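Summary for the lay section of the report: proteins are chains of building blocks that fold into shapes. Here we show the chain for Aerobic carbon-monoxide dehydrogenase large subunit and then a coded description of the shape we predicted for it.
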Amino acid sequence: STADHSVADDGKFFGKPIPREEDTRLLSGQGRYLDDLGHNALIAAFVRSPHAHARIIDIDIDQALEVPGVHAIYTYEDLLADTPEMAENLPLLIPHPGIIAPRNGYPLAKDEVKHVGEAIAMVVADNRYIAEDACAKIDVTYEALKPVVGIDVARTADNAVHADVPDNVAAHLQHGFGDLDAELAAAPHRLTLDLEIERSASMPMEGKGVYARWDGDENTLTFWTSTQTSTSARAAIAARLGMALNKVHCIAPDVGGGFGVKIVHPWPEEVMITWAARRLGQAGISCEVKWVEDRREHFISSAHERGQIQKVDIGFDDDGRLLAFDFTFWHDNGAYLPYGIIVMINTATQVLGPYKPKSFRVNAYSLYTNTVIVTPYRGAGRPQAVFAMERSMDAIAKYLNKDKIAVREANFIRPEDMPYDFGLMFQDGRPLIYDTGDYQAGIDKLKKLIDWDGFPEYQRKARAEGRSVGIGIGAYVEGTGPGPYEGAHVVVETSGKVKAATGLTTQGQGHQTAFAQIVADDLGVKVSDVEIVTGDTRRFGYAVGTFASRGAVMSGSAFHVAAQMVAEKAKKIASGILDLPETDLELREGHVCKIGAEAGVEGTSVPLSVVAVLSNPLRYAFDRESKLATGFAKTDTDMSKPPIPEGEQPGLEATGYYSPPSSTFASGVHAAIVETDPVTAEITVRRYVVIHDCGNVINPRIVEGQVMGAVAQGIGGALYERIVYDEHGQMLNASYMDFLMPFVTEMPDSLEMDHTVTPSGLNPLGMKGAGEAGVIPTSAVIAAAIEDAEGISITSMPISPSELFELRLAHAGS
Ligand code: MCN
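The coded shape description reads as follows.
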């Protein structure tokens, strides 16, 4: 890192590993998270279903209403009595032709509950203690129904999650290319694999939470929510509450992690809290209501992902070249379908990774189960896809007794093939075309860094010492930065400081720093002079949101577009002041100056703050801030009009949007060396190496942090984390006592990283996304390394020491 990042040595910040501006605030306890807000608000708590599947016969709230300090108790009946909109199903956010049977729940359960944790009633009280006490006094009578738990049961069960969806199939998707059946039949070699990735969930430090403020004087609603999509949450709440969009505002305060679980909107709780604030307030009376999810609620009622059962049928030639890749998988959908089938589509469309088989077919089924809903979790279907493909590559290598890397190289899409068109549709509804990428360059770097050629000797020596070590690799390609658009507003204040806003939200990705780097470069100011505002609809109302590793590509590009517009305007105004043509001017060191001239020298340069003062229609002689900053106002007395060029609008500000033609494809290759204990079967990751390509990098320090964090999450997913339901649909590990997460002690002794750079031509700065990359191949890589260490085939992840031990026993017995 650079010690002093206030001025970049070459005047540019893009590409520099400067420390994250926001960290001082966040790491010293000055963050403002949801629960730091609304100290005077009424507090809500929910009655949640203890059954995985049951009919609601009766809800008796009489005793609960008598608890002192209770202000209101609501059930579905109250929604029904309100407006038709309030009583509607929660929406299906992303429709897709593959969805056969979209089914969604209600803000509060109507007449049936379909997973443990589903909200049935809400109590609003003076504080959480009272609210919880009252919840305990609400008496719900259920008629238990048979639950459908797990993919196998959903596939074969004679009972259904939704009575009108008897086969439990929410969606089916089939696509492919080439004559797969003929290629399979004619292939010199053929293998089948049965694979499984278990259900898991993102575990942000901060759970969900909503705080709503109804302003009875203005009849407006403002709500704060720990979300990844504040603009869409606002639109969803305005629609449901029947309010005009301009009367509703949504703010994502500091958000303590999202990782996908906070994408869906509106949550049932967002609907209920905002509605209750308005209902308990009404015209002339203001009211605030707040709910903060506890950890148990996060486990049993937020969202999960990952669970998939897969079947692969492959045909290949003597070189390991894939002639046919036939992939069928069943995806655990949970009880409802609020977000659509993006996770399943991601698996289906990104399973090919960096490879080009001669023929390909995928059959994907999304199955309803009586469990918590499934929405994207970092990687969103890609870790499962990579598991299927990379386990196949390893199986081919083993079968042919060939080097694992050689088999992969035989199948790589080459730089000269780019842009590579698969003839398929991608999840964004546009053709699946890889824009750029050099997978061979990545694997060459990886081979060197992990000492691939030296490993067999190391392994032999370790074995001689009674140690069991193994190496695994995995490659992936990841569609990032999907559209359709993102916008930004950039304004140079009269102080010369810059305020820049995007509707995109932030959950810890370092956006303040990275976006400021882009704006600072365009406006020739310091990073610390740029304030970035995210996720506040009062500041920027229209956006898509933070997911699919789209922040850098989408909002980064939008900031660039807007800042360039501001820079052009600044040059126009400065041209009049300096009497120089605009084409001779540049923005540098807080000034607009003649190209090559020293900043700060009168006659050839003018401070940006002065340009801002001149361009702003306020009575600048009285603007103390600008007077202090520039000394300018004391000499100027003409208040009649702002001295800006004719035809220009006042204000040194601009709004810019960026809309890409399609997603851009990042990629990477990972390798791991693991050691397994011969006695206890404990699995330790010794080394982990990442070669990553996200095109041009704004801030390598941030990207490395993102990738390393995601690798840690991937190691969690490979060795520790899973959601366990029993056959009754009760979650058996709904607390951190039982749900294992890795500590720093479970991280590899060494985690090394290097980059290849294949810039994207699809956005002005050549970027690709980075936020999910690290987690994508981790399970596949670690499975391969364990397999190499043990000589036992690994087909299901995560894997615990006891499971490995069982596999050893089975293997020894076979
Ligand atoms: N970046 C960069 N150069 C690039 C690409 C990215 O410097 N070529 C920087 C970006 O400026 C940004 C960070 O890397 O600061 C991640 O950028 P990007 O890949 O665009 O991802 P997003 O900003 O869209 O963030 C979303 C992504 C996703 S999808 C998940 S899930 C995730 C992740 O980011 N959740 C996170 N990282 C997370 N990190 C934290 N701390 N918390 C989460 O919840």
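Put simply, here is one thing we learned. The first helix runs from residue 23 to 27.
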